């Protein structure tokens, strides 16, 4: 983050301390449950469980203990549920900073892919995972050399996609509720419904707090962009980013544009007159140095040069991982709210 | 093919055709002005015509008309639409002329500006900078990297295609096509290694061509290069006709075939490098527009070149208007629209002319 407003980062820290505290409590409770599953091969109480995901029914006879995670928000979510000891393999993450306390756990988990994507089919199937969690279908595209959902199913590795991002069309239909559904489903799958409810409660609490703080305030006109000199890579009126802006007391100036991540005319961006800009922040290719967000913000300001946002150079670098279903997206709403309405967060 | 082209050259030199050629040029110039007028008048954000034209007039002669527009409208028309419309003319004309020259150079009706691997080299340069960051190629910007990539491709194609300093059409085509595949493989690898859906979407858009980044400061280079290139080619229309007719004809007409081929190869490569660096790889224009021009005026390059340039300019202007208005405010990549609009037009032209039996395509 290049120029985060002071207030927002403190809020995030507070909230993160809250959630990590929750995680720690959850962790300390974990061994009891864990022992139960390991000593007795007999079905654990409450199992089998069945959840629905991407139009498929996934049934678990026991909580998964050899999990593979894909794009980083999927790992973050399991870590937040105190499930780091169940994860047998994860992908690389170097796009942006880790959530507090998660880097240490990340380091302990074997890395099975040096990119943000799942490994190729053979490596993937060789993991012998009993559960696979990812953010989108791209990592299961057989044409791309990945193991397909059906192949993994047949190998005993059921696949769960967060946020209902089962197809490009469905990513447009994301609502914040889907994240809470995911957390509850994961709670069921791992037999940790109590922790899941706690996390849901904490997240809903922070969401409600943010909403309450910005309530009644004039929504700030926001442009969410990923840079570009023309056309502009920007976020339209459908999908997770638009939902986050709305919840944070903003209004997406491209709300009329159908689409989530799309190419928008420079004319539209110039005429949109944003008051604030959100810039997707991420380092490409293995986290090597590519400080992209300041440059992308400058591109947006040059195009919308007559806008209030450009005059004040007002932007927030938003980690792109937070623009995906997980649980960081809910935390980021508070960051965005504090950025858009600093007065509401003075205390 | 040889005899047909020679035939065309003879049939085109009739008085009747000369009159028609003049008419055609006038019609195309009017179409160019009209399409540019349209391009400045419409866009994703509506700007009323009096304002749009007031802004253009004010930009040319400050204070000519009273200001009745907002700064945003001024920016949209003066900083985005007008440079974009002018760039569309330049790129359309440039790609079409390069296509016409390459078709003559390698004596192949399927030749287009991307045949000799130059655009793939440019794309490789651009993708590398895009994915690996500006530092990867010593701080080059994306378009500078694209141009560097096209120069690299040019050098490689020349090294592969020449035999003791002589270029032959078949070697040029083979070396160009082979290197195009090599560069495509290279940039696909970089793209896949990055494994970023966002980067892939952005790069794909760029590869398929867009004029969306047009600004005033991007115009002088392609304008100067294109003007110099087209002027040179027009002056060389005789040797161009000769090598299009065949090596023996050219030699018998006193053309230094080898040197002329090399000149054309370097000239077209530089033009493609500059154009691709500005606007990405826009397909179809360079392949079809020269054929359309030949259908209209025969095979004499003195006529083919100006008509090709004008036709290419008008065509790309219309295509770009469609690309930014059909799905506004989202934009379409130009290569999608060039084919969608170009193919029906070309088929119609082909059908009409073949009935007339006036000229044959090949």
From TrEMBL, chain A:
Record keywords: Lipoprotein, Signal
Signal peptide, first to last residue: 1-32
PROSITE patterns in alphabetical order: FE_B12_PBP, PROKAR_LIPOPROTEIN
Keyword Signal: yes
Domain Fe/B12 periplasmic-binding: start-end pairs: 66-344
Classification via InterPro entries: ABC_Transporter_SBP, ABC_transptr_periplasmic_BD
Keyword Signal in annotation: yes
Pfam families in alphabetical order: Peripla_BP_2
Domain of life: Bacteria
Family, similarity comment: Belongs to the bacterial solute-binding protein 8 family.
Protein known as: Lipoprotein
């Amino acid at each position: 983050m290049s120029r985060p407003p002071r207030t927002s980062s403190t809020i995030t820290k507070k909230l993160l301390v809250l959630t990590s505290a929750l995680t720690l409590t959850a962790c300390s409770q974990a061994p009891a449950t864990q022992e139960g599953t390991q000593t007795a091969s007999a079905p654990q109480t409450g199992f089998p469980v069945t959840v629905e995901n991407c139009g498929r029914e996934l049934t678990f006879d026991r909580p998964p203990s050899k999990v593979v995670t894909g794009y980083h928000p999927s790992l973050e979510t399991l870590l937040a549920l105190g499930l780091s000891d169940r994860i047998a393999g994860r992908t690389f993450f170097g796009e942006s900073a880790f959530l507090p306390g998660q880097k240490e756990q990340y380091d302990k988990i074997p890395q099975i892919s040096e990119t943000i994507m799942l490994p190729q089919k053979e490596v993937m199937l060789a993991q012998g995972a009993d559960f696979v969690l990812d953010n989108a279908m791209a990592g299961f595209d057989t044409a791309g050399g990945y193991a397909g959902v059906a192949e993994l199913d047949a190998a005993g590795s059921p696949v769960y996609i967060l946020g209902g991002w089962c197809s490009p069309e469905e990513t447009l239909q994301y609502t914040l509720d889907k994240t809470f559904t995911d957390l509850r489903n994961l709670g069921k799958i791992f037999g940790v419904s109590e922790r899941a409810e706690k996390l849901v409660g904490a997240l809903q609490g922070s969401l409600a707090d943010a909403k309450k703080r910005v309530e009644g305030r004039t929504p700030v006109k926001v442009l969410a962009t990923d840079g570009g000199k023309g056309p502009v890579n920007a976020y339209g009126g459908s999908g997770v980013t638009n939902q986050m802006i709305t919840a944070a007391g903003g209004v997406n100036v491209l709300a009329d544009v159908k689409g989530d991540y799309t190419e928008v005319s420079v004319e539209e961006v110039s005429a949109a007159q944003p008051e604030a800009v959100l810039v997707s922040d991420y380092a490409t290719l293995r986290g090597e140095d590519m400080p992209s967000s300041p440059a992308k913000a400058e591109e947006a300001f040059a195009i919308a040069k007559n806008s209030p946002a450009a005059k004040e150079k007002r932007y927030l670098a938003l980690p792109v991982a937070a623009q995906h279903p997980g649980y960081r997206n809910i935390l980021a709403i508070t960051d965005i709210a504090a950025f858009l309405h600093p007065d509401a967060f003075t205390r | 093919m040889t005899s047909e082209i020679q035939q065309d050259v003879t049939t085109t030199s009739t008085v009747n055709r000369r009159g028609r050629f003049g008419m055609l040029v006038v019609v195309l110039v009017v179409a160019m002005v009209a399409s540019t007028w349209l391009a400045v008048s419409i866009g994703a954000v509506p700007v009323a015509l009096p304002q749009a034209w007031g802004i253009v007039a004010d930009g040319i002669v400050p204070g000519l008309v009273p200001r009745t527009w907002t700064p945003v409208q001024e920016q949209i028309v003066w900083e985005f639409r007008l440079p974009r419309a002018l760039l569309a003319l330049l790129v359309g004309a440039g790609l079409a002329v390069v296509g016409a020259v390459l078709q003559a150079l390698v004596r192949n009706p399927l030749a287009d500006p991307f045949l000799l691997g130059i655009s793939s080299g440019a794309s490789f340069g651009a993708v590398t900078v895009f994915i690996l960051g500006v530092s990867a190629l010593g701080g080059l910007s994306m378009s500078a990297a694209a141009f560097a990539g096209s120069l690299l491709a040019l050098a490689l194609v020349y090294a592969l295609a020449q035999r003791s300093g002589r270029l032959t059409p078949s070697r040029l085509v083979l070396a160009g096509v082979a290197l195009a595949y090599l560069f495509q493989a290279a940039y696909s690898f970089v793209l896949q290694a990055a494994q970023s859906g966002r980067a892939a979407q952005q790069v794909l858009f760029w590869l398929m061509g867009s004029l969306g980044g047009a600004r005033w400061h991007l115009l002088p280079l392609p304008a100067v290069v294109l003007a110099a290139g087209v002027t040179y080619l027009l002056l060389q229309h005789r040797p161009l006709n000769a090598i299009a007719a065949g090596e023996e004809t050219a030699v018998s007409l006193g053309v230094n075939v080898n040197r002329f081929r090399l000149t054309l190869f370097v000239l077209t490569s530089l033009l493609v490098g500059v154009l691709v660096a500005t606007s990405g790889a826009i397909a179809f224009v360079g392949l079809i527009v020269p054929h359309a021009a030949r259908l209209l005026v025969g095979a004499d390059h003195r006529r083919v070149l100006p008509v090709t340039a004008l036709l290419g300019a008008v065509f790309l202007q219309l295509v770009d208007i469609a690309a930014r208005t059909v799905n506004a405010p989202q934009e379409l990549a130009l290569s999608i629209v060039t084919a969608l609009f170009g193919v029906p037009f070309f088929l119609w032209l082909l059908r009409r002319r073949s009935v007339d039996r006036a000229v044959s395509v090949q």
